[in-house]
Amino acid sequence: MDGLPIPGSLAVVTGASSGIGEATARLLARKGSHVLLLARNTDRLGALASDIRARGGKADPFAVDVADPRALAATAERLVAGHGSPHIVVNNAGAGRWLPILQTSAEEAAQMITVPYLAAFNLTRELLPGMLARGTGRIVNVTSVAARLSWPGAVAYATARTAMEGFTNALRADLHGSGLSVMLAIFGTVETPYWEHNPGSRERLPKQDASMPTLSPEQVASAIVTGIERGTRTVVEPSRYRLLFFINQLFPEQIEASMCKRP
Known about the structure:
The protein is an alpha/beta fold.
């Protein structure tokens, strides 16, 4: 699969106000992409756009709740009208808590499906017409290792992350031969504000994840942008998870039992 040049590109990044989204937007801008920043926090988005511009980059903020399909559609229409169709879409926005099924309300389970999965689906759908007309582009769907390895106490969270992989595979089939490509980016534990808003979650990590290095947002951003440049189909970091995924395909019951053990 051919890569996509970053300089001169137009990139949309969701969840851009902090963590992975912010780091990815900064790196894309440093490499010459005009980044369009999507998130709810107006102040943080504005500050990030200003800082990127002050460093010689191009950035514009679009404050929007990606969980609201109507607001997302209106924002997509506005950014295309003002800047054209993007070359790169990074569906990074994510939310949710790690909870057992009996502690997860129907409303919270629905919210976790809405962001990340439905937000990624809706934004991609809105931006695809112009990208298809141009015949080039790269869509990046960010998810967690929970998409392939589940552990106790994260039922709705893991389901939503698995939906991102299913969306990626189905979208690849839809876009086959169009000139557009879809990259799945799978990451282990990342040092982001998630942990501040979900105290105690680290203690519920399975021993396999606890033994892996914690990634910084900058490391994740580097993996995403390098994958875009190289045309990588799937990015997995830490890379040691690839072996665990493979073993899980061969011996799912044993891996399941192992994942249920605490560190």
